Structures are given as C-alpha cells and as structure tokens.
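Form 7-S
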Amino acid sequence: MDEEYDCIVLGTGLKECILSGLLSVSGKKVLHIDRNKYYGGESASITPLEDLFTKFGFQSTTLEDYGRSRDWNVDLIPKFLMANGQLVKLLVHTGVTRYLEFKSVEGSYVYKGGKIFKVPADEKEALASSLMGIFEKRRFRSFLLFVQDFKADDPKTWKNGIDPKRTTAAQLYETFGLDKDTADFTGHALALYRDDDYLGQPCLDLIQRIQLYSESLARYGKSPYLYPLYGLGELPQGFARLSAIYGGTYMLDKPVDEIIMENGRVVGVRSGNEIARCKQVYCDPSYVPDRVKKVGQVIRCICLLNHPIPNTKDALSCQIIIPQKQVGRKSDIYVSLVSYTHQVAAKGWFIASVSTTVETSNPQTEIKPGIDLLGPIMHKFVSVSDVYKPTDSGTESQIFISESFDATTHFETTCLDVLDIFRRGTGENFDFSKVKHDLGDEDN
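Output:
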C-alpha cells in the first residue's frame, strides 16, 4: 500500500465504483479501499436471506417458508435504470454491459384518488387511459405531440409562443389547458420530479425529462425502466472490474484510520501503519463526517410478498409513484417491485419497496399509502437513513464527497451526482471517447 496514486477512492457504494471506473478509464492511477468485506456499501444487495433478517435484528431460524435462502438477493436501496438514461449510457460506453444482464420492468403506474393507473406515455395510451376524461385526453395528447416534436435548437418547433428558457413549466401546462391532476402525474410520474419546485422554473428541463421517459419507453415497450438480473449489487462490481482492467487496485476489508492533510489539502490515506499517498480522495459521506451536513432523512421499507401487487395486471415488476399532492405531502412516495424472474427471490416470491423523504416525527405513517397498495405482506424491514451532502465542492481540500442516496426509485439523480463530482475533481466533463470500445459487445 505504500505507493503514490493519483486518486484514492474510499467505499464501494455504486457512486464510488462508477467514479473509480471513470477515473481509471481517464488514465488516473487509482487505489480503491473499503472497510467492508463486500461491494455496494449502503446500496449493497444482501444474500443469503438469513443475512437480511440478521441485519434488521430479526431471528432467522424459521425461513423454510421463503424457499431457498441463497436464491434471495435483496437490494437495500432499490432503484431502476431509465433505458435511455445516464447510467445505461455510462454502462454501454464503458463496456460494463458485458458483465451484466438486464430485464425490462413490466409496468409504470401512478396513484390518483386512492387507485393506481398505468402511466400513459404516448398519444395512443393517452387516448385509452382511464386517468383522464375525454376532453382532457385530447389536450394531453396535444401536449405530448408538442413535446415529441420539440427541439431545443430549432425555434420552429417552439409552438404556441413557448420559449423554453422563459416560459415556466406551470405556464406550459396552462398553454395546453391541462388540469392540476394531469400536471401532477406528468411532473411526477413522467418527468420524475420529487416535488413541485419545478413549476416555477423554465420548462426546457420538463420537456427534456418527458422526452427521456418516452425515448426510454420506446426501447423496450412495457416501461422505461430496466433492472439487472441478480440485483443492483452487480453494478458496483461491474465498474470495479472496469477499473481493474484499466489498472485500478482494489482492497476490501481494509480499515481507513486517517485521511492525511497538509496545508489544507489531502496528501494520503492511512490504514494502521501503512500510508498510501495521493493527490485526491473520492469518498462517501461516512468516511468524512466532519465535511458533510445532514439535510434530511429517507425512510425505506422492504417487503417480502408471495404475490404481485394488486391492480397491476399481475406484473412481475413495476414502479408506482404516489405524487405528493394526492396524499397531502411535500414529497412523493415511491413503490418498486421486483421478483423471482430477476433472480433476486425464491420461486414465486416478490420484493416490494416503499420509500419517501421523511417529513414528520413518525416516518412509518408517511409510507402507509404505499404499504396499503401491496396487499398481504409476509415480512417487512424498515430503515430510516440520514441524507448527507458535502459542505463544500472539494476543490480546496481535493476531497470529493458523494451525496447520500435519495428516496427515488431510479438512478438519474445518482448519475448527475457522479458526473458532477468527476467534473469537480478533474476540471472537465467525462469524455466518453477515451473509452476503448473493445471491452465487449455494446449491444449486449
């Protein structure tokens, strides 16, 4: 370990593993250390099933009902990938797809008035949807056609006097005469905003988010989401392999005793009597508690089911978004479902997860609307996690810290954080052209 590196990455959470891969690909000499024996950090996949029960403080003596224990791979922080989103682009461009196999998620639903409805994502579905009345359907179809034809660099496509940099999202909805419920599911279930702050912002971001949703949907048809076989724990390991191919060094089960500073800048990391020198450190918040601030909490409830979620046409996987206004909240509630078809549960079993940003002193009651959709639950595991953000950009100290995972059930915010950290650390945006394209078949 007594060597000099360009970068030391601490923790093997997904964000840290992606960074390790990208830095290695960019020609940096990388050392990657984790105090844990396993990959994934707080976003690990837990196997066998006994380990999940033990982790949450339950006796794991009577698990015969749950099938073979080794067939379970349970994500602690479940999320889906947008088929045309940032993470898939990173996976394809870096060749990490050669280590992974994906399955498309069967359905995307939104909650309205106590019921769930399939999210209409194109004009045909909009006209067939029971989510809206007949006249609203036509208005929504016109809105979708406008979004579909819109090009930011072609003012001819900016119809109805809409200027994407000046017209707000709320004004865009008004222009098409959309009612509040339609605006609600559009902003939260299509554009995937977590609250309503976006309504006062220029509408370009809203339009691009809906375009991403429909481009992702067009790739596989059932929903815009993908999920890796054997769980999300495969993702950090895939990027770790990428880093290793480009010369990165990995050390698991290695305590980190000190981050060594000189004149306010990082110069190395100490583990016991060993010191590895470096110019930069990239890490998750748990390694630098004095350099992060708590900005909130997320509650997650993992539920083991022996049936699909009711009213989803027996979907073997799906996402349900409960927009905050539907249940009198400030932030959305997210429900995700995966199952034995993804090699993450024993035959006939399902794993549902309900998550949201904590707003009260009683987080468990906050996820009740999501829990109520699931039907009978065989076992549930509840956790409340603090959410941390770095207190500075890291450019002075050269310590670059990721943010904790949010409550969303997709990876778009995760990738934005990773690419932002990479830009701060290297002074440039990640250049996909630096990646050798002989790492595997990109269309895997």
